[in-house]
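Appendix B.2, paired examples.
Example (i):
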Amino acid sequence: MLPLFIDAILVDYNIGQFLLLGFVLTTLGALPLKSQQVIGINTMLFGVIFVLTPASLLPNVYLFLGLTLLVIGPMVYVTARG
């Protein structure tokens, strides 16, 4: 029964929307740590995931989001006080 429920959810959304939800949730989960380095690493990781996901699975908008995250992530990491 659970696979049918998950399959019904996946029909309405694409993988890019699930990855974006994962990025938002992990960023919100890292906020209580108050570590800018963790946020930077998280941003870079999801940038890589968005860029490496095959284009047939998600729209091109998410590729540009991944490239943007790959530019912003290192800036956030470098500007952190360590």
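Example (ii):
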Amino acid sequence: MDAEPRTSAPGLPRGLTSVLAVACGLIVADLYYGQPLLPELAASFRIPAGVAGLSVVFPQLGYAIGLVFVVPLGDLRATRPLIVGLLVLNATALLVAALAPAVWLLLAALTAAGLAASAISMIIVLATALARHDQAGAVVGKLMTGLLTGILLARTIAGAVEEVAGWRAVYGGSAVLIAGLATVLHRRLPLHPTSATTTYLPLLGSIAGLIRREPFLRWRMALGLVAFASIQLLWSALPLLLYAKPYEYSTGTIGLHGLLGAVGALMAHQLGRLHDRGHTHRATGILLALAATALALTTDGTHLIPLLVGVALCSAATQGIHILNQASLLTYTPAARSRASTAYMTASFFGGTVGGGLAAPIHSAGSWPAVVAAELAICAIGGLIWVISRRRGRTAAASKSIGSDP
């Protein structure tokens, strides 16, 4: 972990890129532990599956709140104390979740944990601020490899731990890991002060102005919303399919299917390099087409191999769109990076919250084919956004200030 990767810029302290990649993985896992646990949470609290599904929605909602009201502070204050403070809150909230005697307290704690997990955006912004401009995509790619690995292992580990020690051990163990991470980052992160002269409320108000001025930001926000809605709908509905006939898998086995996300994690680093070479828009279109094609393989839902292949490829494609979006937007001027990230990630996680929240109702209404139909509709919307943004020349206009994209 101490060896400096080639993608790191001279401005990054030795080994810090790897440390931050691990941090992104550990923190983001908090948002996804609940997905394979839905059947057990429903049984433990004696609640309907739809209510249990809120344990996936509320952390995403908390994350969105953190993005709007906390992450912009990265353009106003030194980053290290903000990140460490959020991790302390995260660990405390996860401990409360592990001990929660009622579902309302569990949901409140998970919302707070999601808010604190917005530290991820601050970590990514800090890493790109320390990296050279021509390596921003590669650095983001490495961090996203850690983040995506955290997502896929979250589902797998949560399912395995639940079978051995119960769902409470999942959140309790995560609380311990996050507390340790807070100590490490307090020691390793540079202070990296800002030179901002504004105050908090004008800073928040300036986000709307940034969105209004930058068409490229608006298009990437729309694509991020679509990508996150797709991936959250897919992964929230998949456990419901695998728990029922003809599969009837246990929680642990369902969690193992989270390893399907490894395809996206393996692609992350190379996708970051594609951005550095100026192929962001073209690659985004290819990934949208790949997602739609992959979904067609899963339509029936009763044949395991096509289902697994389709889910893996669709997940990788939507994750790839997010990576390209992040790499593009983080080449903003340093004074606006946190606010650009706030705008984009807020839109993305709004999409994720809607997608995750619709999974149980859509599956209940029409089973897996209805989920696939909804996914294909989302892909069609994404394709329309991609085509319109290209025809109107939004990307080319933005490239002068944000980065090349032929």
